[in-house]
Request: fold
Amino acid sequence: DQVLALFPFEPPLMQAAGMACDFVGHPVVAEPVASDADIAAFRAETGIGDAQILLVLPGSRRAEVERLCPVFGEAVAGLVATHPDLRVVIPAAAPVAELVRQATQNWAVTPVVLDPRTHTAEATLHRKRTAFRAANVALAASGTVSLELAAASTPMVIAYTMHWLSFRIMRAMALIDTVTLVNLVSETRVVPECLGPECTPDRIVAALQQVMQAPQAQDAAMALTMERLGQGDEAPGLRAARAVLARL
Reply:
């Protein structure tokens, strides 16, 4: 009878299909952001110091990690060739934490893996948020994580691959030219994507170098994304409750 939408572009689509739909904002805008003190403590705790941080996010599902870690590892090696002091941080999801450790043990740079199995849920979330805010650039699998990065003002490159046939079918059916939510919400195309056959180490390295040379290029799009998702307005939970009450 009623849809509560997280994205501002959804209501017209739902309404065109005959459903009542209210945009209530995305929960990401209500999440806390790490402070400068948190970042300083994180850099000291991990021994990273003042080095540049590449945040790597290979996904939360086993199949994603198995597909992306080898490609991401080669990309890291290529990037380290020109940025030898770069440090890599991977906030691992609990179901794939051990797989991430195994898949990255022979990388050119030994990553700092934030393993949720060694901390409480609260501490794990805090360390993840701090890592997002501390990073200079991120390499991430496609998904909602791009919004978390935007909330932390961390410039990013999005990369994803899948079975070649699945990719060709999806590409043929797609009505949009980007899969990154920051690009979609901000109506820009500033976040580079390496998708399907373009998800290669060379292309990822080139995209990361481009972002590192001009990290401010994504600032306006990330800020606009957060604004359009409801940042600064009433909390999404309250907006959702008011929308439900208004239609009862």
User: Anything to note?
Assistant: The chain has a mean pLDDT of 95.
